[in-house]
Amino acid sequence: MAAAKGAFLNHISRESSDIRGLADFYKEIFGFEEIESPKFEFKVIWLKVSPDFAIHLIERSPDTQLPEGPYSAASPVLDPTHLPRGHHVCFSVSNFDSFVQSLKDKGIKTFQRSVPNRPIRQVFFFDPDGNGLEVASRDE
What we know:
By secondary structure, the chain is an alpha/beta fold. The chain has two domains: 11-59, 2,3-Dihydroxybiphenyl 1,2-Dioxygenase, domain 1, CATH 3.10.180.10; 80-137, 2,3-Dihydroxybiphenyl 1,2-Dioxygenase, domain 1 (Roll).
C-alpha cells in the first residue's frame, strides 16, 4: 500500500536565466495567469495552469554548470521530432487545430503525430529555454 493518500500533481518548476521571458512565453502561448509569488532570496514567477496546478519559474543559479534546458533525451539539438521519447510536459487543449496554427504563425518549429489506435493528435515543440512541450487534442 502506498504511503501517500490522495496524491496529485501540484506544480512543475523550470529554472531559467530569463524567467520574465519564459513567463511571457507561457502566458502568450497557453494563456496561463501570473499569480502572486512568495519572496525568496532568488526571483520566482508562478503561473496558474488550473485551480490546483501551477508552473513555478525559478531564477537560474549563477553557479549552475549545466546547459540551459534539457532539449531531449535523444538529441543534443532543438529537434521536436525527438520529443515523443524525450523529456517533455504535456498539456491538452480543445482547440487543437487553431492552437497549432498559432504556433506556426509565431514561427515555432513543431512536430505532429497521432496516438496509435486513439483519436488523439499531438504537437511537440520547445519553450525558449529548450524545455520540451507536448500539446494533445481534447474533445471540444
